[in-house]
């Protein structure tokens, strides 16, 4: 009996099956789209978590490297984070979240887990400004790790090969791409042996006495976050008082040696102002049958390295600069005054320029 009525049951059930299948077919795209949207949202969330986890792994590795580096450095080292980049677009400076309250000092070296990053140039109570080694005004005494030869590494952000140049290297110096440069330690600021840069290119020309050596920093000067601030080996001298005497250009300008010792029990205002300090010099060079004459004046310099040498070979002679004497003028402003005086001298046919006015250097306008 069941066998006999089975075809009739299937015929009666067929319309129901057709309606159910059609409904499922119509509902399937909507359900699939909803499930797809849910899966996409979950994928975005998982991707974000993966990115955060990767960043945490990178920071963890850097912190481990910093901890290992801190154990090999002098005990006084303060951990800090990079907070922002300085607003001046023409300089390479950053701000860190540690200041004088945490013991940060001007001149302190700043390193990351790979090498030297820069130097503290301004200190505030809870923050500090760091000038990167790629800044145009940065100079680091370095040593070639392979040969032991010393040199000066200058920041040069516009040269496009990493932002550093090893200057005043003789054309025949043994320096090649790939050489590692470390701090020499002769300046009394940076500890010896800190990794600084790697040589990327060396250019030598027959008509020049020095090679052009381009380098790239080993520290992450663009994207780092965690740093260590070291204690400088030699504390920097305090800034000159605001009422310090102004320096002038001309035959009437007097160097500290001409002024003589302080009178009336006055205390000297620092070593660069002591008797016998040199602030300017004349130069003469003969090359290819031509003579070249020049004049140099120390405007604003790092005088610390001059404590290690005898300028011009005279024992006891010290070096001063205009900034140390209180004359806050830029190199361009000093050059302008020199150019005007020499132009006046040339116009008068070689007579000595009139220096009776004892012209003062223009003072920069501060905003």
TrEMBL record:
It holds the Pfam family MreC. The keyword Transcription regulation does not apply. GO terms for cellular component: plasma membrane. Residues 239-272 are annotated as: Disordered. Residues 157-350 form the BPL/LPL catalytic domain. Keywords: Cell shape. One of its GO terms (biological process) is regulation of cell shape. InterPro entries: aa-tRNA-synth_II/BPL/LPL (IPR045864), BPL_LPL_catalytic (IPR004143), Cell/Rod_1 (IPR042177), Cell/Rod_MreC_2 (IPR042175), MreC (IPR007221), MreC_beta-barrel_core (IPR055342). Belongs to the MreC family. This is Cell shape-determining protein MreC. It comes from mine drainage metagenome.
């Amino acid at each position: 009996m069941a066998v006999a009525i089975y075809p009739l049951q299937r015929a009666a059930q067929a319309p129901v099956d057709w309606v159910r299948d059609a409904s499922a077919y119509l509902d399937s795209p909507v359900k699939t789209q909803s499930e797809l949207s849910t899966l996409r949202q979950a994928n975005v969330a998982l991707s974000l978590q993966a990115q955060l986890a990767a960043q945490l792994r990178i920071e963890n590795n850097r912190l481990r490297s910093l901890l290992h580096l801190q154990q090999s450095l002098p005990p006084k080292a303060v951990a800090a984070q990079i907070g922002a980049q300085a607003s001046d677009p023409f300089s390479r400076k950053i701000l860190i979240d540690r200041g004088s309250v945490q013991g940060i000092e001007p001149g302190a070296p700043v390193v990351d887990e790979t090498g030297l990053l820069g130097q503290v140039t301004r200190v505030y109570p809870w923050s500090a400004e760091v000038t990167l080694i790629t800044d145009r005004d940065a100079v680091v005494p370095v040593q070639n790790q392979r040969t032991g030869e010393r040199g000066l590494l200058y920041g040069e952000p516009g040269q496009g090969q990493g932002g550093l140049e090893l200057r005043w290297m003789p054309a025949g110096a043994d320096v090649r791409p790939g050489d590692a440069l470390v701090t020499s330690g002769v300046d009394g600021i940076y500890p010896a042996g800190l990794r600084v840069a790697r040589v990327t290119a060396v250019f030598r020309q027959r008509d020049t006495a020095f090679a052009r050596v381009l380098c790239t920093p080993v520290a992450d000067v663009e994207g780092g976050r965690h740093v260590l601030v070291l204690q400088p080996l030699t504390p920097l001298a305090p800034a000159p008082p605001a009422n310090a005497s102004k320096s002038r250009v001309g035959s009437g300008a007097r160097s500290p040696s001409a002024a003589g010792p302080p009178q009336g029990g006055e205390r000297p205002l620092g070593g660069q102002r002591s008797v016998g300090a040199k602030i300017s010099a004349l130069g003469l060079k003969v090359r290819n049958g031509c003579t070249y004459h020049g004049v140099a004046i120390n405007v604003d310099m790092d005088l610390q390295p001059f404590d290690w040498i005898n300028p011009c070979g005279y024992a006891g002679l010290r070096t001063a600069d205009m900034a140390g004497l209180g004359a806050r003028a830029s190199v361009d402003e000093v050059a302008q005054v020199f150019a005007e005086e020499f132009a006046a001298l040339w116009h008068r046919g070689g007579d000595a320029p009139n220096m009776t006015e004892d012209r003062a250097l223009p003072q920069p306008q501060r905003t």
